[in-house]
Amino acid sequence: MSFAHGPHDLVLIFAVFVLAGLVKGVVGLGLPTVAVGLLGIVMAPREAAALLVVPSLVTNVWQLLAGPAFGSLVRRLWPMLVAIVVGTVGGGVLLPGAGGADAAAALGGALLLYAAAGLASFVLHVPAGAERGASPLVGLVTGLVTAATGVFVIPAVPYLQGLRLERDALVQALGLCFTVSTVALGASLLLAGEYPAGAAGMSLAALVPAMIGMMCGQWIRGRIRPQTFRRCFFVGLLALGVHLMLKPFVA
């Protein structure tokens, strides 16, 4: 895996992370989804995921620490979090060097499912008695999807929304899940030899545009209707997912 990018590539990476940070600043999530989705057009998803590690970790720890229920959420969600680590690291070992058209198509499929669920306002209802069995299964599937695509929203986000958490607790739970997913993804890439020093340096540099975008998004959030922005976000993801899925057939 090479990270010797030219000036045009660096401008693209900067712009992608500004946009991804802006989306996260407005809607509270979406940085890894947007960043990996857009970069997946020009590079393998796991190469894009390597650039994501530092910006995702910092912004999600920020989100995680902003809520009031860290301890109770860890006690409630630990089976899911452990399963995410197992699925991500195990998937990285089973699928070393995943890339090319198949990985791009898998990423497109994940984005397509996520966008379709968002546009349809799909709400998953998780019965209280089902949480114990569902939590590790959801975590394991999320980990495998993360290992294959670098995106960790499916099925974790619909599942957490289905737990009927209060708004602040939900935002903190998402931050907790994404933080664990990011750490597990970094470990998966390291074990597969796909996180060289060049990738770490580029990932650290990508934190700057991501933070700029996130601060701009927080400013925008108070000036537009969040529902309108979310709809545009999901429409864009839908188009991007379709493009990535069709890419092997039109290349």
TrEMBL record:
It comes from the Bacteria. The keyword Endoplasmic reticulum does not apply. It is found in: Cell membrane. Keywords: Cell membrane, Membrane, Transmembrane, Transmembrane helix, Transport. Pfam families: TauE. It is a multi-pass membrane protein. The chain crosses the membrane at residues 12-41, 48-65, 77-96, 103-125, 137-157, 169-191, 197-220, 232-250. Belongs to the 4-toluene sulfonate uptake permease (TSUP) (TC 2.A.102) family. This is Probable membrane transporter protein. It comes from Telluria antibiotica. The lineage of its organism: Bacteria, Pseudomonadati, Pseudomonadota, Betaproteobacteria, Burkholderiales.
